[in-house]
Structures are given as structure tokens and as C-alpha cells.
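Hi R.,

Here's the chain you asked about this morning:
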Amino acid sequence: MTVRPLPRSRLDALVPSLVTGQALVALVPATGDLKWAAGPRGRRPRRGAEQPPDRACDLWLEHPTLHETVGLTPTEGIVDAFEYDVSLTKAAHEVDRVFFIAAGTVTAHAGDLFANPRWKKLHGGFRVEDALLLLYLSAGALARLSTVPTD
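And the predicted structure, written out as C-alpha cells:
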């Protein structure tokens, strides 16, 4: 395999074709520059007003940065939704038809969060609604996730 850098200028044209028909996509940075990897995207992954808004969830629990890229200062996030039953609707903040869900409260139970059976239900719900859930996480976290990000 040959690894080539993908200029961000080409990303906007490539991403919609990669996520079409998907309900769950894992964004796993292949760079040590996490600020760049989480950086703002010029457009939402799916185009078209008829499609449900996308959800982007920051599961990089050790160093959450996704919310900063769009200028949010969230008080609650995915950890709060899973551990304290905070509504995902309350934890999500809309920016340009993308709902950002921050990591939220620091947790000592990250393994439990990734293994939670609720991920499979959430994934299934997004599939039924033809919606897209983007998870920003490390390769190690992806390996522990209790659902598989493919249809």
C-alpha cells in the first residue's frame, strides 16, 4: 500500500461518495496532528436539504477537540448521555446542519462507554432514518466499540 497525503482541497469532493449509504462512519486520524485532523470541514459530508442532519461525535476521550473546531463550549456530551442519561438532543449543538456531540464529562469508565450495547441500537436507528453518525476516535477506541461502522 502506498500512503499519500490527501489535500484538504480534494476532501470536499471525495467525502460524499464515501459516506453515501452509510449510517455510521469512523473518523480515525492517521496523523499525530490531532488539531488538523479534527479541523473544520468546508461542507457537511452529505449534501441535500432532504437528508437528515449529520451527527459528529467526539469519542477522543483523552483529548477531545472536535467541539473547538466549530467554536463550541459544550457542557454535556456523549459521556453524559451514556453514563448519566442526558438526552443526546440536549448534548448536540447544531452548526451548519451538522449536530456536534462533544465528549462531555471526563470518565473513568471509557471501556464501558465503548462496549455499551446502546451503540448497536443507536447505529440501527441512524440506519433506519437514513442519517449519518460520524465518530471521531482513535484506532484503539474503534477496536473496543460495540458496533461495526459499516452497513
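The beta strands are 24-27, 54-58, 92-95, 98-101, 133-136.

Let me know if you need anything else.
M.
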